[in-house]
Amino acid sequence: MENIDWLNYKGLEYRDGNLFFNDVNTIEISKKYGTPIFVISEEIIREKYRTLKKVLNSEYKKNHIHYAVKANSNISILKILNTEGALFDCTSQGEIYTCFKAGIAPERIIYTGNMFTDDDFEFSVKNDIIINLDSISQLKRLIKIYEKLGKEKKIISFRINPEFGAGHHVHDITAGREVKFGILEHQAIEAYKKAKDFGFERFGVHQHIGSGINNPYNFEKAAEKYFSIIKKLASSLKIHFEFIDFGGGLGIPYHPNEEPLDLEIYKEIVVKPFKKLINIENLGEPVFKIEPGRFLVAESCILITQINTIKDNGYKLFAGVDAGFNTLIRPTMYGSYHHIMKCNKNKKDKILKYEIVGPICESGDILGKERELTKLIEGDYLAILDTGAYGYVMSSNYNSRPRSAEILISDGHIFKIREAEAFDDLLRNQIVPDHLK
Ligand code: LLP
Question: Active site includes 90?
Answer without folding.
Answer: no
